[in-house]
Design brief:
This protein is α/β, with parallel strands linked by helices and 427 residues long. It is built from 14 helices and 13 strands. The structure holds pyridoxal-5'-phosphate (PLP). Pyridoxal-5'-phosphate binds next to helix 4. Keywords: Endoplasmic reticulum, Lipid metabolism, Lyase, Membrane, Pyridoxal phosphate, Sphingolipid metabolism, Transmembrane, Transmembrane helix.
């Protein structure tokens, strides 16, 4: 492993705190605790609750804690391998629910353009039609009127994010809830990224619009323990308003020759060690730990947004992000914000480039909190560089430019992306 690490030196070092999101570190003590939980439960598998009853109990308690956090203590849920699986499971649940209760055989979902690609991925796996709805250019919230128009007799669910990945803004969940109730369709609120930040905003004294199960019409919520919950990577929770709805997520085969097979999510065998690590993280952090982490992280994000607005006139912050993510675009045609991103990369930063509009975002983590002053100073410098000597190239720019401008662009980018995945498996 030392040799492997040595060979990889020169790549981005996440310890420096210059990475957007990606590493949700809860501190060295918590890290050690998680590792000891792994050691203790490394061979455990919740597929066999009779052999590993403690793991079963820990999973139940993780779900229960999240339900309480999202104000639905009598609801139901399961843990999954991450946000994507939680979302795919929600899509599958609504598909089976709509087929059983409404006879829908050609299901459709209505998804904001700002929602995570996991909804499209789930729909692609499950052969479901997606209506992609634009967001308001100023608020960055999904256009609720257009969501309303897209709903038809085949709609199984609509989607809102709290918060979304591209710009960290929150959709109008109350308005979406009204639509969902009126049309009797599911409303999934994606809190994968909002995870352990959104539920603590109010108590931490930050303004927040309603987003959880207290909103009428919200029927499911995904929350990633492995993001701001500081759990080990590979854990998320999908929650439902009630246990009846969760039933549609299960796969049960009573006729299998290997015995009655029942499993709650995609995987069969699952790593009990990750559940133990997650449970340990939740116990370690507790309410007060998450409240403090919310305070620190969101304060840093608000400072970044404020300083960009007041100190860097060439940039504008997208919408009014309530939590930990801040996205910014260029104010002027002569400044390409992705070139600013390139200049930031040269300074060791790893920001996310987003499109529509072209922008960069940073998801603040505990690691980036002490780096706010450096970020703003480097950003000012990067804007100067990109303005004075626009290169017209650079990795971010080239790929995104290709994707947007040429009719074969996105196909070509798709081929490049697939080739990239191939390279990941070159030993
Ligand atoms: C809003 C949102 N939803 C879903 C996901 C998917 O989570 P995962 O990468 O754990 O599958 C992410 C990941 O960043 C996200 O930001």
């Amino acid at each position: 492993m030392e040799k492997m690490d040595a060979e990889s030196s020169g790549h981005v070092d996440w310890h420096e705190g210059k990475i957007s999101g990606a590493v949700y570190h809860g501190g060295e003590d918590l890290q050690r605790l998680i590792v000891s939980a792994f050691e203790r439960y490394s061979v455990s598998n919740p597929l066999h609750p009779d052999v590993f009853p403690a793991v079963r109990k820990m999973e139940a308690e993780i779900v229960s804690m999240c339900l309480k956090m999202y104000n639905n203590p009598n609801g139901a849920g399961v843990t999954t391998s991450g946000g994507t699986e939680s979302i795919i499971m929600a899509v599958k649940t609504y598909r089976d629910w709509a087929r059983a209760t409404k006879g829908i055989t050609e299901p459709e979902i209505v998804v904001p353009i700002s929602a995570h690609a996991a909804f499209d991925k789930g729909a692609a796996y499950l052969k479901i039609k997606v209506h992609t709805i634009p967001v308001d250019p100023v608020t960055r919230q999904v256009d609720v009127k257009r969501v309303s128009r897209a709903i038809n007799a085949n709609t199984i669910m609509i989607v809102g994010s709290a918060v979304n990945f591209p710009d960290g803004c929150q959709d109008d969940i109350v308005a979406l809830g009204k639509l969902a109730s009126k049309h009797k369709v599911g409303l999934h609120v994606d809190c994968c990224l909002g995870s352990f930040i959104m539920p603590f905003l109010e108590e931490a004294g930050f303004p927040v619009e309603p987003f959880d199960f207290r909103v009428e019409g919200v029927t499911s919520i995904s929350c990633d323990t492995h993001k701001y919950g500081f759990a080990p990577k590979g854990n998320s929770v999908i929650m439902y308003r009630d246990a009846e709805l969760r039933r549609f997520q299960y796969y049960v085969n009573p006729n299998w020759v290997g015995g009655v097979y029942a499993s709650p999510s995609i995987a069969g065998s699952r790593p009990g060690a990750l559940i133990a690590g997650t449970w340990a993280a939740l116990q370690y952090m507790g309410h007060s730990g998450y409240l403090e982490s919310c305070r620190t992280i969101v304060s840093a994000a608000k400072t970044i947004a404020h300083r960009i607005k007041t100190e860097i006139p060439e940039l504008r912050v997208l919408g009014q992000p309530p939590a930990s993510v801040v996205a910014f675009a260029s104010q002027h045609a002569d400044l390409n914000v992705h070139e600013v991103g390139d200049a930031m990369s040269k300074k060791g930063w790893h920001l996310n480039a987003i499109t529509n509009p072209a922008a960069l975002h940073i998801a603040v983590t505990r690691l980036t909190v002490p780096m706010v002053d450096n970020l703003i100073a480097d950003l000012k410098d990067a804007v100067r560089v990109a303005k004075l000597a626009p290169s017209g190239k650079g990795t971010m720019v080239t790929l995104y430019g290709l994707g947007q401008s040429s009719p074969v662009g996105s196909t070509l980018v798709g081929h490049v992306a697939a080739a990239f995945l191939d390279t990941l498996y070159k030993a």
